[in-house]
Design brief:
Number of strands: 4
Strand content: 25-35%
Strand order of the largest sheet: 3-2-1-4
Shape: elongated
CATH topology: OB fold (Dihydrolipoamide Acetyltransferase, E2P)
Number of domains: 1
Oligomer: single chain
Number of helices: 2
GO biological process, one term: mRNA catabolic process
CATH class: Mainly Beta
GO molecular function: nuclease activity; RNA binding
Radius of gyration: 14 Å
Helix content: 25-40%
Largest sheet: 4 strands, antiparallel
InterPro entries: SNase_OB-fold_sf (IPR035437)
CATH architecture: Beta Barrel
């Protein structure tokens, strides 16, 4: 919700690095991260990275690759 997002914003702005776990791969460059310390989930996207969209060639391969590499991994 919008209120929850506003509540977590100061925490996320305080520090540049946050330990998290990749919960879900939405696409080749978008992920859902869980920040266990604050028990919040955020959507994360790489900036400047171009990946095929769902209806473009190689989109399934991009998603499968990212699932193999980072799904359920600790990230910072």
């Amino acid at each position: 919700s919008a209120k929850k997002a506003k509540d977590f914003l100061p925490f996320l702005q305080r520090s540049r690095r946050h330990p998290a776990v990749v919960e879900y791969v939405l696409s080749g460059h978008r992920f859902k991260l869980l920040i266990p310390k604050e028990t919040c989930s955020i959507a994360f996207s790489f900036s400047g990275v171009r990946c095929p969209g769902r209806d473009e060639p190689y989109s399934d391969e991009a998603i499968a690759f990212m699932r193999r590499k980072i799904l359920q991994r600790d990230v910072e």
